[in-house]
Structures are given as C-alpha cells and as structure tokens.
C-alpha cells in the first residue's frame, strides 16, 4: 500500500501516532485517534503500522468491494486485513470508500468500520 506523504510504510505510515516505547512499539488507545485520525490497537511496532497503512492504501485503491487485502509481520506476529465494502463519489466529485479493517496484535483482535476519501494527491484519508 502506498504510504502517506512524509511516511515510510499497515500496514501503513503515521506522522504522529503517539508515544513510542523503547521497544519500538506504538501505544494508542482503541478509542483515541492519532494525528492521522486512525485508531490503532495498542503495542503495534512501527513496522506493523507501516504495513497496515500500506495495506489500507492498496486495498482502497485496487481491490473490488468485498475482497480483502491481508498483511502479516512475522517479526512481531501482528497481522491484519482491509476489506472495502462500498465505493461512492461525493457531490463534489471526491471518491470515497467504506471499509472494514481488522488488526491482531499480541492475540488481541480489533475490527473497525470506517470511510476514507481520496485526496488530491491520490492518498486515501480516513475520515
């Protein structure tokens, strides 16, 4: 999945995600949104986040609805998937997609449903 401007890779990645622990993990709450407006499970490594973001971008750009794109980081054991479920165009001509994202870290699985729209640079931005 293409990374967002200024980022390296779910997936996929984040400019200001929260506090990083010395072990290279990212600590966020499932209810708090990061600077890029994405809520991510706790203790994702920076590589996990990059892989998730890349997968999100690729799935939203290339997958047909109801087709999942998956990722897995063998180093951390984290994994996830993104499934676009609906595509539409706003009145102003912006393409948007509803999607479902599942991320598993440390045996803990979180699923969320969200919408992202493509910005002028072609990057999908979660709302």
Which tags fit this structure?
single chain; 127 residues; mainly beta; five-stranded antiparallel beta sheet; three-stranded antiparallel beta sheet; 8 strands; 13% helix; disordered N terminus
What does this protein look like?
The structure is a single chain. By secondary structure, the chain is mainly beta. The protein has one domain (19-126). Helices cover 13% and strands 37% of the residues. The protein contains 1 helix and 8 strands; from the N terminus they run βββαβββββ. The strands form 2 sheets. It has a 5-stranded antiparallel beta sheet, with helices on one face. Strands 1-2-3 form a 3-stranded antiparallel beta sheet. Strand 5 and strand 6 form a beta hairpin. The two termini are 18 Å apart. 33% of the residues are buried. Mean pLDDT is 76; it is low at 1-37.
Can you lay out the helices and strands and say which pair or pack?
Layout: E1 19-20, E2 25-27, E3 44-45, H1 46-62, E4 69-72, E5 79-89, E6 95-105, E7 108-118, E8 124-126
Antiparallel strand pairs: 1-2, 2-3, 4-5, 5-6, 6-7, 7-8
**Strand segment count:** 8
Residues in β-strands, percent: 35-45%
Shape: elongated
Average pLDDT score: 76
Q: Which consecutive residue ranges, at least 5 long each, have pLDDT under 50?
A: 1-37
Total domain units: 1
First-residue to last-residue Cα separation? 18 Å
Helix count? 1
Structural class: mainly beta
Q: Order of strands across the biggest sheet?
A: 4-5-6-7-8
Biggest β-sheet strands, sense, barrel: 5 strands, antiparallel
Query: Over the alpha carbons, how many angstroms does the gyration radius reach?
Result: 14 Å
| Percent range of helical residues | 10-25%
Secondary-structure element pattern, one letter each: EEEHEEEEE
């Amino acid at each position: 999945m293409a990374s967002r401007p200024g980022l390296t890779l779910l997936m996929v990645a984040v400019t200001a995600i929260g506090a990083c622990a010395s072990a290279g993990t990212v600590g966020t709450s499932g209810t708090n949104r990061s600077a890029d407006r994405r809520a991510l499970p706790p203790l994702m490594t920076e590589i996990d986040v990059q892989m998730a973001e890349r997968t999100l971008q690729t799935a939203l750009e290339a997958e047909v609805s109801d087709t999942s794109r998956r990722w897995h980081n063998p180093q951390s054991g984290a994994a996830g998937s993104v499934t676009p479920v609906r595509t539409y165009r706003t009145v102003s001509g912006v393409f948007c997609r509803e999607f479902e994202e599942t991320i598993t870290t440390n045996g803990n699985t979180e699923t969320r449903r969200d919408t992202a729209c493509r910005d002028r640079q072609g990057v999908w931005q979660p709302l």
